[in-house]
Amino acid sequence: MARISDETRRNNEAAIRHVMDRLLAGDVPSGGKCDIKTLATQAGVARTGFYPKKNRDGSPRPGTYQHLAEEFERRLTELRETGVIPDPRAAQIERLKEQVSGLKERLAARDEQIGGLTDFRQRALSQIAAQRMEIERLRDVLAAPSNVRALPNSSGASAPYGSCS
Question: Which ranges form a coiled coil (predicted)?
Answer without folding.
Answer: 93-141
